Amino acid sequence: EVQLQASGGGLVQAGRSLRLSCAASGFTRDDYAIGWFRQAPGKEREGVSCISTKDGETAYADSVKGRFTISINNARNTVYLQMSSLKPADTAIYYCAAVPNDYSLRVLVSFPEVIGGLRDASWGRGTLVTVSS
User: Fold this and answer.
1) What is the DSSP secondary-structure string of 37-101?
2) Hey, how many other C-beta atoms are within 10 angstroms of the C-beta on 52?
3) Which of 28, 35, 63, 81 has the least CB density, counted as fewest CB within 10 Å?
4) C-alpha dihedral over 115, 93, 84, 107, to 10 degrees?
5) Structure confidence by residue, pLDDT tens digits, 46-73
6) Is 26 helix (H, G, I), strand (E, B) or coil?
7) Which helix (H) or strand (E) holds 5?
8) Residues of the chain below pLDDT 50
9) What secondary structure letter does DSSP report for 112?
């Protein structure tokens, strides 16, 4: 069973940067899609970014393109989300999730309800990011 642990959240001023980490364990194959999703109070869950553990392919939501960068350290089984030029609208609980990479990364980001409905998806506990104006 894949287990994920997200960390790195906190309180930051608008315009600043923050890096989230997602430590993964329990992989049973060599190709997973690991993604970051977020949910703000009173809003639906939103896809942020995904990355393939096999070839590093990435996908981003339009709202974070050019500001956020997802990366992976395969030796440490850790996925990072470098967030720059943060805005108050980025305030949310951020979750990382993993699923066997049998799906389009773009679909997973654009339609987060897809990964939410997958039986072989694993979720970590969220980490809160608060961006003050």
Assistant:
1) EEE-TTS--EEEEEEETTT--EEE-TTTTTTEEEEEETTTTEEEEEE-S--GGG-EEEEEEEEES
2) 16
3) 28
4) 10
5) 999 999 999 999 999 999 999 999 999 9
6) coil
7) strand 3-7
8) none
9) H
